Each structure stands twice: as C-alpha cells, then as structure tokens.
Amino acid sequence: MLTISELAAYAGVTVRAVRHYHAKGLLPEPERDSSGYRRYDAAAVVELVRIRTLADAGVPLSRVRELLSAGEGEFATAVGEIDRRLRAEIRERQRHRERIARLAAGDSLALPAEAVAYLERLRAVGVPDEMVEAERDAWILVAAHLPERMPFYMQVKEAQLDDPGIRELYRELADIAHWPADDPRLVPVADRLVEQFEAVPEEEWDEGSLPEDLAVLLDGVFLARVAGAQTILARFEERGWTGWTNIRRVEQVG
C-alpha cells in the first residue's frame, strides 16, 4: 500500500494535484489506516495515471470523469470533439501570436505591407523620423477607412519618391513644421509644392482623392502640427490651388 506521496510519485503528479482530484471527485479517497493516513493500492495508481493523461491532453477536468467511465465508442467521439476544440484553440493562439508579432513590428501593426515598404523607403532616402511618423499616422487613418485603395495610393507615393525634388522636399518638411507662421521661407516652399502640383495631370488628382470627411480630418492634423500651415495654404490659393490632402485647382469664377 502506498502513501499519498508515493502515489503521486508513481503517477508523476504532485501531492497537491492528488488532493485536487480528490476534491473534484475524480479520484476516490481511500479509507485511512489506524494511524490516520490514507493508503493507496495499485488500482489507484492506474486511475491517477489515466486522469493525468487526460488532463495533460487538454481535457477539461469537468469532462474527465465522464471519459473515465465512457465506453469505447463514446470515448472515441468525445476525444474527437476535444481534438477539434484544441485545434480551434491552437488556431486562435496562432492568431494571437501574429498580432503580437505585428505589435513588435511597429509600422506593421495597422498598415498593409505596401505602406510599410513605403515608410521604409522614406527612411532610406533620409526623411527624418518625425516626418515618417506623421506619414505613418496619416496612412493609418486612410487604411482604416479605405483598405482596398491602399495599393493604389502607395503606388502613387512610390512614384513620387522617384522624383529627386520630392525626396528633398520630404527631407525638409520636418524642419518646416517648426518654422513660425510668419517665416519668409514658407512662401518659396509653397511655390515649390505648386510646381509639383502643376506637373501632375489633373485627372490624377481626382483619381487619388480621398473622401471629403477623411480629407478634412487629415487637413486638421496638418494645421495642428505645422505652425505655418495657414501661410502655405494661403499661398496655394494665390497660385490657383486649394487643399492639402485633396489638392485641387481653384475654380475660376466668371
């Protein structure tokens, strides 16, 4: 006959686990001997091993008793159900791992691969981190509203980065954001931007435009972050253009 410690050692579990199985009604408690100790026989070892094996396989303890007394067919059916549940849990955990990996990946958390590649290219051409982060936040908003349009938008942005003038402008914009609203350098910057606008066929502006409510939201970010934003937009209008996110020619009256 075995003590509870010896029983636990034979079955490869802890004494605490044995007591837990007693409390759950899975393993019957034996009578105590004259000294007041529980004594277990070989059958108790076999039963405990079966309980441990089912528990280790992921069977909820609430179902272990049912399976211990099940017939062969019933047991096979129950095990099949448990296997399906475990496979579903594995898939869900894999999805959790993928989400954690995206968290660790930074830009990839809320952006598609083509947007991440675009941001990486901005960094590669020397655009300051502050400017890249502003771009990232803007594209997160766009991706949340128009995920199906992101490949097109990124194709346009990648093509723009092929232009050395655009690359230089991006590198300067982080500094421009800190210029005061009356800085005389803002007007030449706005003029350079207008030159870029005028080099783009008008139909391409319409094709790449965002819904107006989203454009207003993104324009608000520009106005809040850049002290000279109003100066730049005012110069745009003087040159016949309006907007920041959805850039358009000003309609001439008369």
Protein model, in words:
This protein is mainly α and 254 residues long. The chain folds into 2 domains: 4-103, Multidrug-efflux Transporter Regulator, Chain: A, Domain 2 (Orthogonal Bundle); 107-249, no CATH class. Helices cover 67% and strands 2% of the residues. It has a two-stranded antiparallel ribbon. The longest helix is centred in the middle third of the chain and has 33 residues, at 72-104.
Summarize the entry for a quick read.
This protein is mainly α. It is 67% helix and 2% strand.
Keywords:
single chain, 13 helices, two-stranded antiparallel ribbon, mainly alpha, Multidrug-efflux Transporter Regulator, Chain: A, Domain 2, 2 domains, 254 residues
